[in-house]
Design brief:
The chain is built from five helices and seven strands. The structure holds guanosine-5'-diphosphate and magnesium ion. Guanosine-5'-diphosphate (GDP) binds next to helix 1. One of its GO terms (molecular function) is GTPase activity.
């Protein structure tokens, strides 16, 4: 399996370490968010450990010069409450991770995604949608997810949909490269 040896966060090195950049990672539980964090962390030495809040659905971590706020959606609490609890200013980019194998919950994922887009605090912020678990057979294709999420309706922000796998590491670098470019052309 083509495991890439280059750092998927290389494109973020342009952002100064001093100022850093804050990214908001969200998706239903089991989408692959924590796997992504470990995948990215493996490329770093001496990076901080996960910093869990009072609640186990939010894990925050510095990797390289990036502060990730990683939120599990789809639980008992509404997204709004979750977002307020974990709320941080100055989020520059959103990564929404979708489990492409989870057809049963694709509508739940979509409604959480749309709620994120409705947050005033996140308005205009570029969003990367990762159609994860593309290594599994028979999963929803990138085109299928694009349709289901009605991405063509998005206005007023840049977005990008990338198929990927946190197991084979395919697609992650491409997605993050897009996000780093989108953030830079935003500011
Ligand atoms: N086949 C496959 N499994 C994955 C992938 N990403 C995550 N998983 C598995 O999905 C489960 C949930 O992943 P996790 O990262 O904990 O999801 P989170 O709840 O979003 O943080 C774990 O068993 C992972 O090993 C992927 O790309 N392909
Ligand atoms: Mg997790």
């Amino acid at each position: 399996m083509g495991i890439s040896s280059s750092n998927p966060l290389a494109s973020f090195k342009k952002f100064s370490r001093e100022r850093g950049v804050k990214l908001f990672v969200a998706g239903l539980d089991a989408a692959g968010k924590t796997s992504m964090m470990y995948r990215l962390k493996n490329f770093q030495q001496n990076s901080a450990e996960f910093e869990y809040g009072v609640y186990n659905y939010c894990e925050n971590i510095w990797i390289q010069n990036i502060y990730f706020i990683n939120l599990d959606l789809g639980g008992v609490m509404r997204f709004k409450d979750l977002f307020q609890l974990s709320y941080q200013e100055n989020i520059k980019g959103i990564i929404f991770v979708v489990d492409s194998s989870d057809r049963d919950r694709i509508e739940d994922a979509k409604s959480d995604f749309q709620e994120i887009l409705r947050q005033e605090l996140l308005s205009g912020i570029p969003v990367l949608i990762l159609a994860n678990k593309q290594d599994l057979p028979g999963v929803m294709t990138v085109d299928e997810i694009k349709e289901k999420f009605e991405l063509f309706l998005i206005r007023g922000r840049s977005w990008y949909l990338q198929g990927c796998s946190m197991i084979t590491n395919n697609g992650l670098s491409e997605g993050l490269e897009w996000l780093s470019r989108a953030i830079q052309s935003d500011s």
